Amino acid sequence: MGTGRLTGVGLGLRWDFIDEVLDREDEVASTVRFFEVSPENYMRRGGYFPRALEQVAQRHAMSTHGLMMSLGSPDPLDARYMAELRRFLDRFGGAWHSDHLSFGGLDGATLHDLLPVPFTRASARNIADRIRRAQDMLGRPMAVENISYYMVVGRSQLSEAEFLAEVLEAADCRLLLDVNNLDVNAKNHGFDAWDWLKAIPLDRVVEVHVAGPERWSDDLLIDSHGADVRPDVYDLLSWVVERTGPVPVLLERDNNIPPFGELLAEVRKVDATYQKALRRFAGQKETSRAA
Amino acid sequence: MLHEAPLRGLTGAIRERTAPAALDADPATFLRRFGVSGEDLASMASPQGAERMLVYRALVHNRFRGAVEVSLPRTAQTLGAKRLVEQVSAFIDERASSSAYLRDIAAEFVAWAIPLWEQNEQIAAYLPDLARHELLTFELAGAMDEPIDDHEANVDIDRPLVFRGPVRLERYDFSVHRQGDEEPIAGTVHVLAYRDAEDVARFLELSEAAASILGHLLPGQLPLRLAIERGCRDAGLAVDDALLAGAAELLSDLAERGVLLGSRPHD
Fold first, then answer.
1. In chain B, what residues touch A221 (CB-CB under 8 Å)?
2. Under CATH, what is the fold of the domain B146-263?
């Protein structure tokens, strides 16, 4: 399948249901517009899953979303990882590759998590430099995703939204806007998600992620991708798509994965919100053209 | 220049074995050790800051432990939940991962843990072999496909043989390759490990002579005749009719399993 311009609602591809993606081809093709893969699960690997991925890629549009670039780290980019990633993207990649505004370790020790970065100008410059280098090494544009953060690391010079805008501007890169992460952060840290959305450059949004968090404690939600999408996240998705138009939207589910039929039903539910928002987007364009 | 101290403070809270107690007692003292100071310190050493660093610690430790449990379920069960928690925690403190791939954590953990297990009389003596075997099973299922050398579909005693990789030859001191609830039995075991057409790791128990002959054949350099002679010499056995019949039976079995493809063509 082509990996050109993506649109519609896609699903994060997981090994738990990759067989059903292949077995229920008609139902999947009529529901899921694209699949998003984490390259690290397939890179430098043989056997069943890379072969299954080849079959999925022949039938469906794909996007790639990495976990391990550690853009916020002071360590140099891992040259071997980047070379392996480029080989993977040359085969399966689309118009851009995305990773997270986070760091994953220090001094060569990897912690395999999306750890928060300080909201400072120096941190923004460091990340922007690394994004530019990564784009050169990968030979394609990058999009970066706003993460869920459970604490602010050190003193902030900027709000998260200002920090994000500064990174995007300095790196001249795209934004993968995760509205679930926004909702989790707004609830955990007590800020207004709508104000946040108004402060970021929506024109840089190339993809939107939705998912559902789980409660860790009375005052903390964790972005586990382990629950259904919450109503507030649907509202944020709707508001964003009404303004961005038909950017691709991805449903992520990594934990407590329901039966595949239920997952497809949730994709359809996200799509219903998406289509309504697109109609409002088209109506606004008509109105502004008429004016 | 990027101010690294806050990042060092957070990773210290995640990695250091004593971090929970130290953060509980005095977060500021703990964080100062990593160079965190001034307003950074005020932000991170608050009660909520300390609590949230421990949330990240729990998330990272859970992920590492989960990676070990998925790849090495019998090893994890044999170690027991409490010891697994302690050892993964110690591993993160002393080593953590050096790979971008989550699936590599199990191998990194085993490489770190085996010397400790071998010195600890409370740990089952078969655990290192069990971990190596589970790691082999996991590694084989995801090993890169190996290029297949040119071959002819017959077995010629005067030519090297060609095998479909990945294939590994392992020697254990316990019967860890046998499934079931019973404890592995002490005694040298030779195992040929390969991946079948459905990409499932399979194991074939071998005699010492068979393992020795295959040890000479698998690199693909020695002709079959020489491999048999050297394998028998290494195993202290004579090359007689019974041994040759056994070798023929083994090769036939490997061909049926799709592991042996044939002989290398004449140059």
1. none
2. Outer Surface Protein A; domain 3 (3.90.930)
A261: left (phi over 0), alpha (psi -120 to 50) or beta: alpha
Shortest CA gap A239–chain B (Å): 31
C-beta atoms of A48 and B199 within 8 A: yes
Q: Grade residue B181 by pLDDT with cuts at 50, 70 and 90.
A: low
**Structure confidence at residue A2 (pLDDT):** 42
User: Please, what are the domains in chain A?
Assistant: 9-286 (3.20.20.150)
Residues of A in contact with B141 (CB under 8 A): 47-48
Q: How confident is the model at residue A4 (pLDDT cuts 50, 70, 90)?
A: low
Q: How far is A111 from chain B (nearest CA, A)?
A: 6
Q: Where are the domains of chain B?
A: 5-123, 146-263
> Residue B240's CB: how many other CB atoms inside 10 A?
10
| Out of A74, A112, A116, closest to residue B2 by CB | A74
Q: pLDDT higher for A211 or B165? A: A211
Q: Which residues of A touch B105 (CB under 8 A)?
A: 112
Question: A201-232: per-residue pLDDT in tens?
Answer: 999 999 999 999 999 999 999 999 999 999 99
Q: For every residue of chain A, which 3-state class applies, written as one string?
A: CCCCCCCCEEEECCHHHHHHHHHCHHHHHHHCCEEEECHHHCCCCCCHHHHHHHHHHHHCEEEEECCCCCCCCCCCCCHHHHHHHHHHHHHHCCCCEEEECCEEEECCEEEEEEECCCCCHHHHHHHHHHHHHHHHHHCCCEEEECCCCCCCCCCCCCCHHHHHHHHHHHHCCEEEEEHHHHHHHHHHHCCCHHHHHHHCCHHHEEEEEECCCEEEECCEEECCCCCCCCHHHHHHHHHHHHHHCCCCEEECCCCCCCCHHHHHHHHHHHHHHHHHHHHHHHHHHHHHHHC
Whether the per-residue pLDDT at A3 is higher than 50: the answer is: no
The verdict on a CB contact (< 8 Å) between A153 and B145 is no
Contacts of B201 in chain A (CB under 8 A): none
